[in-house]
């Protein structure tokens, strides 16, 4: 590893440690959730926060916006939200001399960190308005394409699909989220600390650690981090083993999985493994990073068959079984 890159990684690791401490001033517990959210931003990707209302998802996004020094906007998704409410629209204005012209008014998507709150409460038509922005970092309105600010990240929150008034996200949009982060209920001790910290006279304020330029530089460093051949092979073996039509797929996948992850899943694992190693103070990812990221990366990129769901099969259990089997084969080899 080049000496300059080594120094950059070590310096960035120290700064990320400060960022995690800054987030912890307002987010108590949920260490894994914070780590995955920061990792997604280090990779230049988008994250989907999955959990019931009231678990701090909105607070987390607001805190990350402050700590990372990004301009942020928030959109509350509702059934009557229209695409123009997100992307913006052209309005006809009359000048003082009586002439008329269209002027484009930017929507809230023109931000460096966009919080899409309860994204699955909007109609599929409105959800699809985010597709081009998430993938290409630009939007097209009235035939004109406009670039979004850099960096651009979407952190979306989603309520469980079983709740009333929710719409399932289309597979194409789910695939554009680098990672799905499950936000669980806190344990008793953590919940006690949350209650005490948030019901007093004043709440802690998170300091700003990064700015847009330094975040973009950090994303470049992540992409230059070395990855061993064994880790690359493990990523490919894991992703391909989750496809039911792959000849090397295990029986549990061929029997229970309707469709599996595409190449974007392997790309996401490669980037997130680097980012996770960096957040944990290591210079390169190892097989343990791949195994720990299997659920967050693959869980929203594959689906069980109808028969498997009827039998009560859990997708996360299938992913764990495949990841364990692939790791054993790699170790034996």
Descriptive keywords:
globular; MoxR-like ATPase; ATP-binding; Helicase, Ruva Protein, domain 3; five-stranded parallel beta sheet; two-stranded antiparallel sheet; alpha/beta; single chain; 48% helix; ATPase_AAA-3; ATP binding; 2 domains; Rossmann fold; nucleotide-binding; 11 strands; 333 residues
Write the layout of secondary structure elements.
Layout: H1 3-24, H2 31-42, E1 47-50, H3 57-67, E2 72-76, H4 83-87, E3 88-94, E4 100-106, E5 113-117, H5 124-127, H6 131-136, E6 138-141, E7 144-147, E8 153-158, H7 171-174, E9 179-182, H8 188-198, H9 212-224, H10 229-241, H11 251-256, E10 257-259, H12 263-279, H13 287-298, E11 303-304, H14 306-310, H15 315-332
Parallel strand pairs: 1-8, 1-9, 2-5, 5-8
Antiparallel strand pairs: 3-4, 6-7, 10-11
Helix pairs in contact: 1-9, 2-12, 10-12, 10-13, 10-15, 12-13, 13-15
What does this entry show, briefly?
The chain has 333 residues and is of the alpha/beta class. It is 48% helix and 15% strand.
Distance between the termini: 26 Å
Q: In the CATH hierarchy, what is the class of the largest domain?
A: Alpha Beta
For the biggest β-sheet, the strand order reads 2-5-8-1-9
Specify the CATH architecture of the largest domain.
3-Layer(aba) Sandwich
Report the strand count: 11
β-strand amount: 15-25%
* Helix percentage: 40-55%
Outline the biggest β-sheet.
5 strands, parallel
How many domain regions?
Answer: 2
Point out poorly predicted stretches. Answer: none
How many helices? The count is 15
- Which whole number gives the mean pLDDT? 87
